[in-house]
Amino acid sequence: MLSRTADHLFWMARYMERAENTARILDVTYRLSLLPQSEAEVELMWGGMLKIMELEDAFHVRHEAITPEAVLDFMIFDRENPGSIFRCLRATRENAHAVRGTLTSELWETSNETWLKMRDFTLAKMMESGPGAFFEWVKYRSHLSRGVTIGTMLQDESLRFIRLGTFLERADNTARILEVKYLNLLPGAEEDVHTADYYQWSALLHSVSAFEVYRRVYRDQITPLRVAELLVLRADMPRSLARSMKEVYSNLTRLSNVRSAETERLAGELESHLHFGRIESIFEGGFRKYLEDFRDRIFDLGCRISDDFLIPTTA
Amino acid sequence: MAITKFFNEMTADDGSVRAHYAAYAAWLSETPAERIARKRAEADSLFHRFGITFAVYGEESGTERLIPFDIIPRIIPAKEWSDLEAGLRQRVKALNAFIHDIYHDQEILKAGHIPADQVLNNAQYRPEMQGVNVPCDIYAHIAGVDVVRAGAGEFYVLEDNLRVPSGVSYMLEDRRMMMRLFPELFARHRIAPVEHYPDMLLHTLRSVAPVGVTDPTVVVMTPGAYNSAYFEHAFLAQQMGVELVEGQDLFVRDDQVFMRTTQGPRRVDVIYRRVDDDFLDPEAFRKDSMIGVPGLLRAYRAGRVTLSNAIGTGVADDKSIYPYVPEMIRFYLGEEPILNNVPTYMCRKPEDLAYTLAHLPELVVKEVHGAGGYGMLVGPASTKEEIETFRKYLVANPEKYIAQPTLALSNCPTFVESGVAPRHLDLRPFVLSGTEVQMVPGGLTRVALRDGSLVVNSSQGGGTKDTWVLEA
């Protein structure tokens, strides 16, 4: 397959996944902001979210004060913000457009239709029906796109580059979602859950579609340690870091070429840490530091995949 | 010259419906207007969803527009098509023979049938191709010949497009759309299928692979996603199951072309290129081309890769060469031309220029190297000022122009805002030449949507119709 084609497929999938997870992060933050609390706390929460998305500075160039509406506008509709859902869906569509001949017509049409519809949304329209309905829409378009991908694409290299993009992005994004919540948690506080916190943890679980899963798996009350275990180490949880890395590794080994041995080794190493790791020992070293380190390694893998397959430097 | 009467594709002069349109006309009259309106809206939204669009130059970058699609088909009876097809095959054979001759022995120039300077000083003549042998001696593997019907219904060839003719994807998509919207019509008519065009194209491209290559790798080369015909490039690559490449995906090493893949370099044998000659190779042609492949001409001249169409085919479809095509048919094939040529005044000749200047209000004046309906004057449809402006161009650079009588292009009922009204149309069938010459029955019918307009180009607001060739 052409390297450029693989590059477009990989990024098409990453941007779609990013749009979905941005909707999820905004959704949980929005839900949490509705809980009874002071305005300062609400501002702190939105600000923390921007920080984790690494968009704090960009936001303040465009807006002075952090208000829910300003952040939603910035994160959803802002054409200047490369991380906005608008920009992610446009990039998804542009990448799909560049390789539309490689996609099944159904997959191309799905991405094209999502983009056409996105252009019709406005902040006012969205607020009127509630941001929740919009976040649902984004998630369902992403579900549809993934379903059409799996249901129609030939199981060859192109599908693997798409899957690789999806799971590499998801690994990064789930780590960020966890960071949003753990940002203000003090060391040693992981075991205590106050009643007020219950809503925060359940909102986090809802945001990654894991609330019911948690109940099924643990059949017990919600504790931060178990939430972390579920989203980091449980390979049967589809949005966990462990599951994402299993998919990254297995797709990568099947794409293997003469240059990619070291990249495969690093991915395998990260995967096996998650496979054999224990949440208690992860917490001992500090959970936030663990997540940051994890994201650095994901970033490094992304660069290596690009060098090995997508934009090879040598002819 | 006042034009009063046009040939109507659907109805005869006495108002009766022509036999080959009878079943369709009956269907149209019995189908409720609301259903038609609903189907037309559906067609629009489907074309949008499928992203069957073309990019418009000169507007905000990345602007994409739909080509308007009309649901009343252009129907051609079997006998008319077989004559037309024979004429087109004959014409393209002669044109390929001409290009081969020009880049080899130039017999036709030696015999004095065409003035040598007309050919050799033409900007489209590529000296780099002199003496280069190409597989099967075929240069124009894909030709899209523009045909119109005029007068009492006879066909004229307007232009032979032998460089990178486009439009075939719309032929296929229009058919797919009609079958989706009105399946019942296909039960009522025996309509010759066209869907196998991509297969035929792939077969043609494989048949002209470099000598000695048994299982050639074919690719489609596009200038990129912002090119106006990008949809078609992607569509054809997908339908043929081959890679769609850009210049940056290819490189030349030891006169062999490779593409950069995820598994390392892979050899490329046949390039169906939708990039103009000028931009193909910055080492040989325009230095500033960002979409070409350095060294491509070298590989091509060494016979290690086939370019389709060949470099230098423009020397045969240039408007200043067009008047000589009937002569080519006689010279190379020893046959009389089946299809008519439009009488053409070559303004570089003083007597033709004088005639043109004296008859501007009734003539169509075109730039010799123009395309896409840009830079032309349609005398009868122009204001005095427009005519006077063009007169100045003509006097200043007569060699840049040709003039032709304004043909009374046939028309066909078409949906417009005010209802159904006749609109002028043309037809672009595609002729494929490799080890054999092949055609699918049909082509792209373009229709001028403005009342009275004779310009059908999509860049000028033209639309398309499905084209039905009826089986005998």
From TrEMBL, chain A:
UniProt feature coiled coil, ranges: none
Domain of life: Bacteria
Listed Pfam families: Alpha-E
Domain DUF403 stretches: 1-310
InterPro entries documented for this protein: ATP-dep_Glu-Cys_Ligase-2 (IPR051680), DUF403 (IPR007296)
Protein name per UniProt: Alpha-E domain-containing protein
Lineage: Bacteria, Pseudomonadati, Pseudomonadota, Betaproteobacteria, Rhodocyclales
TrEMBL record, chain B:
One family name in Pfam for this protein: CP_ATPgrasp_2
Coiled coil start-end: none
Occurrences of domain Circularly permuted ATP-grasp type (ranges): 73-448
Domain of life assignment: Bacteria
Protein name, as recorded: Circularly permuted type 2 ATP-grasp protein
